[in-house]
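Appendix B. Raw example, untouched.
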Amino acid sequence: MGNSIQRLGNITIVGLKAIFRNKLRSSLTMLGIVIGVGCVIVVVAIGNGASQSIQQTINSLGSNFIMIFPGASTQSGARIFTGNSTLTTEDADAIKAECPAVAYVSPVVRSNGQVVAGELNWGTQVFGAGPDWPFIRSWNTSEGSFFGDSDVKSATKVCVLGATVAENLFPQGGSVGQIVRIKNVPFKVVGVLERKGGSMMGSDQDDQVVAPYTTVMKRLQGQSKLSMIYAASASSDGVADAQAQIEALLRQRHRIPPGGDLDFQMRSQEEIASAQDAQMKILRTLLLSIAGVSLLIGGIGIMNIMLVSVTERTREIGIRMAIGAKGRHVLMQFLFEAVTLSIVGGTIGVALGIGFSSLFAKVLGWPIIVSPASVILSFGVAGTVGVIFGFFPAFKASTLDPIDALRYE
């Protein structure tokens, strides 16, 4: 036992001396490992942050959220998007009345406009919606309240401000009860929405004004068609059923025959999130491939340098074997040096990866999450690279003939 510990100590001392004897060469040898491991840390951190961001965006969209919006139409045999909506308020009413899997429905119309309050003004999106809108979007008010069904039926000139709009028009607060003008039409502010932050596309969800859709259609747009319809299923398991029921109903109402092209489209929050997640997976795969190539190059560099080291130290190996060292001891010696280079390179790579991840988070505003699993994985990969690419040079050293080694010049 004592001899084994002493031998291990000797291997460690000799190995470290060999590494420090050629500091520049050792540093360059570790560079590939440093870059590869650093890339792994950054890529995994960005992927974790993106996944969390996507999940937050799903939650911010609302509970069991479904969007129905105008689709393409066939003209002269060609499928084109005309921009003309075929969705009506009657469609929305029918969905709510005839689709049992649907819990909430809100007609939606969209417009852009300058909102004016006293001497301040702010350009933003104006959404016309129904009283079910806050239930579909899971979006409560932080001040005041949302407008009700009576406001929609009578096309009352009331509105609810997003947090960004409220801050820019009423920096001192107290926006509820105030009058704002949208396209020179006065609206009374009845509430302010809770802050939700950025969307999956990077836009500010709080930069909007919501008013009764009837008011927006009559006072601001002068049109009878809807921009889209928002719906929410009764449960998360019922989204597919709700979509099937909505499609069947709108096919019937729009007189679309079986197999005919739809004049509307539907998207659920899961589909939106899945599309974004698929894009992130492609990006992660690409970056991890680059990191893998860096690790491969680093491993080849370690093997190359260790082979050079074996050649340079052939006489040393011969002397050690002549005074009693076994082949396995020489094998352990060179394997220890290779693994040490990999582990040290991996440690530096982890530190740089965490540092660059924090830098990206601060400078670019990206959501970055460095997980302990990625750090452990990086160390494991670095150690494995050292063992795999260090074994052949170590094995070559262990099989040298002592007599030939002693004669080597």
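End of appendix B.
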